[in-house]
Amino acid sequence: MRDSSITNKERLQHILEAISKINDFIDRQSKESFLNSDILQNATLFQFAIIGEAVVNIDRELLNKYPYPWHNIRSFRNFILHEYHAIEIWIVWETAKNDLPKLKQIIETILKDEWGNKIN
C-alpha cells in the first residue's frame, strides 16, 4: 500500500538525496577500498534501497513520460532486499559509478519539467 502522504516530488527529491549520499560515500574511495569496507557497502546498499523504494512508489504515469529503464531500479531494489545473499558487491560499485549520473540527470529533468525550476 502506497503512503499517499508523500508526494511524487518528495520521492524524487529522496532519490536525489540518496544519490548524493552514495556519491559522498564513494567519491574519494577506490574500488578496492569500497570492496573491502562493509560499512561503505552497507551504507551504499541502503541508499540504493531508498532509491528503489521511491521509484516503486512514484506514479507510473509520471515515470513513463521519461525514457529510462525504471524496471531496472525496481529489480535492483528487490534483489537487494530479497536476494541479499547473492549480491556481487563489485556490481554495486559499477552501478554507483556508471548508472547514477544518468539517473540523477533524469530525476533533475523530471523535477524541472513537472515543477519548474523549484527543486524544493
Quote the distance from N terminus to C terminus. Answer: 26 Å
Q: What's the overall geometry?
A: globular
Beta content comes to under 5%
As for the number of domains, it is: 1
Regions with pLDDT < 50 over 5+ consecutive residues? none
**Helix content class:** over 70%
Strand count, sense and barrel status of the largest sheet are: none
**Continuous helix count:** 7
Number of strands: 0
Can you give the mean pLDDT?
93
Class per helix and strand makeup: mainly alpha
Order of helices and strands: HHHHHHH
The gyration radius over C-alpha positions equals 14 Å
Short summary:
73% of the residues lie in helices and 0% in strands. It has helices at residues 8-26, 31-35, 38-57, 60-64, 70-82, 89-98, 100-115.
Structure description:
With 120 residues, the protein is mostly helical. The protein has one domain. The chain has 7 helices and no strands. The radius of gyration is 14 Å and the shape is globular. The chain starts with 7 loop residues before the first helix and ends in a 5-residue tail after the last helix.
Topology, please?
Elements: H1 8-26, H2 31-35, H3 38-57, H4 60-64, H5 70-82, H6 89-98, H7 100-115
Helix pairs in contact: 1-3, 1-7, 3-5
Brief descriptors of the model:
globular, mainly alpha, single chain
